[in-house]
Write a structure and sequence with these properties.
The chain is of the alpha/beta class. Helices cover 32% and strands 26% of the residues. It has a single domain, classed as Maf protein.
């Protein structure tokens, strides 16, 4: 079975490689603009499915995996910062607070006859951070393409007091525990490939 990850994210690619599946990555053409008053979990689910659907129309003989992650503080969406100043402001806002991440995964089976969508919620309690700590962290890791302005798989773990959730890989952008379950529902047993 051909498997396609509808993503250009190097983080998602590395995560999926951990399952030792043969797959290819194809960049989806998806407008990621939130709808007015769209809840973070709904946005993540809609975008994950839209990414998968944009690829499945071109490769209907393949199993397509789409994923998206949305971070929020008290319901307000935090996007990818893009630069130092925005990342610094995001981390100051997160300092001493809890940030919730919604990582959605969507699977579309070959021939588009079945699909699964799931949103994994994961919360992060941030340490109280000084401006100096934030600046030093950003200079060292430069997480400007990451929702929430950190890389949990790297030095970003030092920003946290506590992680609360079922699937730590969801924090990195692709919930592998959930993905393994959803693949099993579509007849792909990761341990038997």
């Amino acid at each position: 079975m051909n498997i396609i990850l509808a993503s250009s994210s190097p983080y998602r690619r590395r995560l999926l490689e951990r399952l030792n599946l043969p797959f290819q990555c194809i960049h989806p053409q998806t407008d990621e603009t939130p709808w007015p008053d769209e809840a973070p979990a709904n946005l993540a689910a809609r975008l994950a499915l839209a990414k998968a659907e944009s690829i499945s129309t071109l490769y209907n003989d393949s199993l397509i995996i789409g994923s998206d992650q949305v971070a929020s503080i008290e319901g307000s969406i935090i996007g990818k910062p893009g630069d130092f100043d925005t990342a610094s402001a995001q981390l100051r806002s997160s300092s001493g607070r809890q940030v919730t991440f919604y990582t959605a995964i969507a699977l579309i089976s070959p021939n588009r006859d079945r699909q699964r969508v799931h949103v994994e919620r994961f919360r992060v309690q941030f340490r109280t951070l000084s401006d100096g700590q934030i600046a030093d962290y950003l200079d060292r890791e430069r997480p400007y393409d990451c929702a929430g302005s950190f890389k949990a798989e790297g030095l970003g773990i030092a920003l946290f007091e506590r992680l609360i959730g079922d699937d730590p890989t969801s924090l990195e952008g692709l919930p592998l525990i959930t993905l393994t379950t959803l693949l099993g529902e579509l007849g792909v047993d990761i341990l038997r490939i």
